[in-house]
Structure of Ribose-5-phosphate isomerase A:
Amino acid sequence: MTQDELKALVGQAAVAHVVPGSIVGVGTGSTVNCFIDALAPLKDQIAGAVSSSVKSTERLLALGIKVLDANEVSSIPVYIDGADEIDHGGHMIKGGGAALTREKIVADLAERFICIADASKLVDTLGAFPLPVEVIPMAATQVIRRFGQAYGGQAQVRAGVTTDNGNVIVDVRGLQITDPLAMEAEVSQWPGVVTVGIFARHKAKVCLLGTPEGVRTLT
Ligand code: 5RP
C-alpha cells in the first residue's frame, strides 16, 4: 500500500471515534484531509467542528460541515489530528504543516486526542523529524541561539512560511528528545516562543496507525 492509501485508511477509521451529536476537533494535514473527506457524509450526525487551521476550515466548509469558533466551545470529546512523529508513549512532534499553535489550543479543549498516522511516523525516540517551534518574528534569532546553547540542535527559520497567527516557524534539527515533557515545559517558557511542536502534555490517548496489514490501534 502507498503512504496515501495508509492515510486514507486511518482517516476512514477515525470516523468511528466521532461521538454522534457532538462537536469534533479537527487537526491539519494530508492525513486529516482524508478524515475530513470521510466525515463529510456524516455531517448531519455531528453538531459541527472546531478547526485548527485556515486550510482545514476551508475544506470543512467546502464539504458543508459547520465550523465553530474555539471561543464558542468549552469542551469537546475528541480531537483528531495527524503527527510528524509519535513515540510508543503517545508523545508527538507536530507542526510540519505550521499549524501547531491552533492544534494545541484545540487539543487542550478535548477530552481525548486521537492521532491518525501512517506507520512511518512511529519512532522509538522523537527528534529525527525537525522540531517546529512557532516564534514571534522579533525573537527568532534569540530562540535559534538559545536552542544551540540548551540542546545543541541546529535551528533555522522555515523559509517562506508565515503561520495563520502571523508568526514564523523555527525548525530544529539534530535533537534526541528523550524527555518530551521536560523539554516542552522548558522551551514553552522562552520569551518569543508561542508554541513548541512537542505534544507531551497533550499527548495522544489513542493512535490509529496505518500499516499494510490494516489499522493498528495503540493505546
Ligand atoms: C500540521 C501537523 C500535521 O498533523 C503533521 O504535519 C502531519 O501531517 P501529514 O498528515 O500531512 O503527514 O502537525 O501542523
In short: Residues 3-14 form the longest helix (12 residues). Residues 27-31, 81-84, 94-100, 103 surround ribulose-5-phosphate (CB under 6 Å). The two ends are 24 Å apart (CA to CA).
